[in-house]
Amino acid sequence: MNTLLQYGFTDRIGALFSFHFPSGVQPGRIVRTDRGRVLVATTEGILHLDDAGSLATGDWVGLRGDGDRVVVGHLPRSTLLQRKRAYDPLSEAQALAANIDLLGVVVPLDRPLSTNRLERTLVAAWDSGAVPLVILTKADLTSRFDGVVAETVDRARGVEVLTTSAEAGDGLEHLRGRIGAGQTLALLGPSGAGKSSLINALAGDARQDTGEVRTTDGRGRHTTTARELVPLGDGAILMDTPGLRGFALWDAEDGLSRVFGDVEELFAGCRFRDCSHESEPGCAVQAAIAAGDLEERRWLSYRKMDRELASLHRRQDVAEQRRYGRAFHRVARDAAMAKDYRNRYREG
Ligand SMILES: Nc1nc2c(ncn2[C@@H]2O[C@H](COP(=O)(O)OP(=O)(O)OP(=O)(O)O)[C@@H](O)[C@H]2O)c(=O)[nH]1
Ligand SMILES: [Mg+2]
Ligand SMILES: [Zn+2]
Predict the structure, then answer these.
(1) What is the pLDDT of residue 343?
(2) Which of 34, 197, 222, 241 to mutate to test the pocket of ligand 1 (most atoms within 8 A of CB)?
(3) 195 Ramachandran zone, left/alpha/beta (phi>0; psi -120 to 50)
(4) What is the pTM of this model?
(5) What is the CATH number of domain 3-74?
(6) CATH architecture of residue range(s) 80-240
(7) Which of 58, 60, 221, 307 has the most CB atoms in a 10 Å sphere around its CB?
(8) Residues 37, 17 contacting (CB under 8 angstroms)
C-alpha cells in the first residue's frame, strides 16, 4: 500500500486537495513533529522537512518542488487540539494535533484518579472537535485501585470509558473496533500512563519505546518526545504523544461548557444576574454545594479553568491593543513624513 494511504489518505482528502491546491502540488501528511523537526508522508515515502512552521502532526499539506520539497500550505483542519504555549507572555496557541477523529484521554489504573486532570483534559478534548473517549490502562493492576474504574465512569459523565490492558490484552479488540478505516485516534495522558505500550499492543509490534515508571513516586520518565502517527496497516491510525505535564487551555469555552454543563445551568437560578457565586445572597451555586448536589471540588475545578480563560482573553486584548497601537504609530509616522515631504517640496 502506498505510504500516504497507510496514513489515512482517502478519496475525500484527494477531493479536498484538488479543490484547495493548484495542479502540480503533491499531497502529504505530517506524521511526526519533534521540536521543529518534521517528517511528512508522501506518495513516494517519508521525507524530512527542516521547518514545521505552525504545522501540527496530522496536518494534510501541499508540497511543491522536486529534490527539496517545500510546504505550500495545509488543508483546513477538520479538528485541532491546541493549548496555550507554556511560559509565553504573549499568549500564543500551540497546535498539537490536527485532523484527529477520536481523542483518547488515557487514565492509568496504577495510581489514584486525578479528577481535576481528567476534567481539564476532557475540556481540551471536546474543544478540539474530535470525539473524546476515556481509555483506562493497566487493567491487570486494577486490584491496587479497585474503585478507580467506577469512579472514572462516574467522573467522565457520559463520555465512553474503555478498560484496557496492554499487558494482558484486555479491551484491545473493542478499542480497535472503535477506529474506522481512515480514522485517527490520538492518545493523551500523563507520562507513564501506558500510551506507547497500548499503541505497541494494538500494532502487534514494538513500534514505540516505552519506559518503566519510577519506583519512588510512580510517575513516568517522559520516554516519548514526539507526536507521531502510527498506522495500524488497514487504514486506522494512532497518534502517540509525549506525557502531559500540564495543559494550559486555549479558547476552550465550548469544551468547558460541554464538561460542566450542569454547573453553568445553575447560574440561571442565581438571584443576581452578575452573581460571582462566592457569597452573594440567593446564589444557586453555593446553595447546590450546601445541599450536597454539587461537589465543591468540581465547582473549584470549573472556576479555575474559567478564570484561566478569562485571563487569557484579557491578555489577548492587551496584545491586540499593542498591535493596534504599533500600527497607529506607523500610520502617524508615515503621515508625518508625507507632510514633511510635501512641505519641503513646496519650499523647494
Ligand atoms: N502491568 C502493566 N504495565 C503496563 C501496561 N501498559 C504499560 N505498562 C507499563 O507502564 C510503563 C509506562 O508505559 P509507557 O507505554 O512507556 O507509558 P507512556 O504513557 O507512553 O509514557 P511517556 O512516553 O513517558 O509519556 C512501562 O513500564 C510499561 O511496561 C499494562 O497494561 N499493564
Ligand atoms: Mg510513550
Ligand atoms: Zn451565583
Answers:
(1) 61
(2) 197
(3) alpha
(4) 0.89
(5) 2.40.50
(6) 3-Layer(aba) Sandwich (3.40)
(7) 58
(8) no
